[in-house]
Design brief:
By secondary structure, this protein is of the alpha+beta class. The protein folds into three domains: 1-97 and 143-182, no CATH class; 104-134 and 195-278, Alpha-Beta Plaits (2-Layer Sandwich), CATH 3.30.70; 284-427, no CATH class. The chain has helices at 2-6, 8-18, 29-34, 36-49, 77-95, 111-123, 143-151, 157-168, 192-209, 228-244, 284-297, 306-323, 332-354, 357-366, 371-379, 385-388, 392-397, 400-405, 411-429; strands at residues 57-63, 69-75, 128-133, 171-172, 178-179, 213-217, 220-225, 256-258, 268-272, 278-282. The strands form three sheets. A four-stranded mixed beta sheet has the order 2-1-4-5. The chain starts with a helix and ends in a 6-residue tail after the last helix.
Amino acid sequence: MERVCAGLDKALESVVSNHGAPGPNRQTVLEMKANWETLRPRLVKALLKGEYRPGDIRRVFIPKLGGGERGLGIPDGVDRVVQEAVRRVLEPRYESRFHASSHGFRPGRSCHTAIAEAKGILKEGCEYVVDLDLKDFFNRVHHQRLLATLERDVKDRRVLHLIGRMLKAKVVMPDGVRVANEEGVPQGGPLSPLLSNIVLDELDTELQNRGLRFVRYADDCNIYVRSRRSGERVMESVTRFIERRLRLTVNAEKSAVAKPKERHFLGFSLNRKEDGEVEVHLSERSRRRLRKRVKELTPRTRGASMDTAIAEVNAYLQGWAGFFGICTNVVERALKGVDAHVRRRLRAMKLKQRKRKRSILGFLVSLRASKERAGPQIFGGRKSLWKLSHTPAVEGVLNNAYWRKQGLLSLAELWKASSERLAMSAPKQMTLSLS
């Protein structure tokens, strides 16, 4: 506990730098920092005496990538600092023991390193994936099993009791009702990612002892095998281990044995070709999310300026390209299609701003469109703005060069630049020991 207390100041810096949302007491991290000199001595005294009591956590819900909502548990600022200080003490003890195929919430590892390892395993000849979905994992972790695991390595009873109290902290629901927390490590605090890895390290060890090749990122676990029949046997036996030993639940509806290209793993799908090379694609789910977000950023009912819309689209595409830069060249054609879709969405927005067809024609002519050619396309028949945005007259002047001058970035070009940067850094960041 003394080491936890010694690290409180650095933990405070980390929490403040993350700019997290307030917990149930609604105090911001900056307000907490302003009172830190007064607060710190009392906090240290309570921790050393084993008298510190974490407060409630605030439940908030965010959309899940695959649909539905994910519940987060947001602790108060002081509790976040204490969790971060505990994490900094415990993480070095466990980090060296964690399996090399575990990539989530670990220093120097990421979704990119997970996909790089999966790609390497498939190159070695595995053709099927056992895709395990753990149902509501973070909310179903068994407290006593977790504490018993920690007890093997953490000898300071004050730290164990503190973690136990954190796990048992009551949850304040959005309607204000306080609910007892009998299981789970709610996402939202600095300590929960480490605790989740400690829980699932037992699964990693079991898979290693069975001689199975796998990649795990938090609760997303893919096991790679050479045949469907082998995969079905692995699915049955590993599910039994998870449910009986770890007391977690495998979601049978979302889990499957399949070709990797048919599954979604961290936003990607992998395809092993006949020559043994492995392509990294966007998963179908990621494609849908990309198009949906572009649509949200470019609604024709929006009153914002075109400059604002382009800035928001650019920011999204830059972040997207940075994450999906590890996709192989097979995605370039699809990304060019997205670029065309973005430009068409913006053309429709631009036409909407002109309101009337006569004004639209005047605008096109001002951009050197032929009035004789554009007029019949604009006034001929009942065309929606969406259909007008795809006519030769509109596309001819609101073309790639026009949008480039407006500052619009190309997703295909952003992806290519990101891919080249990642390729240059691959030996340092993405080559992993598989021992």
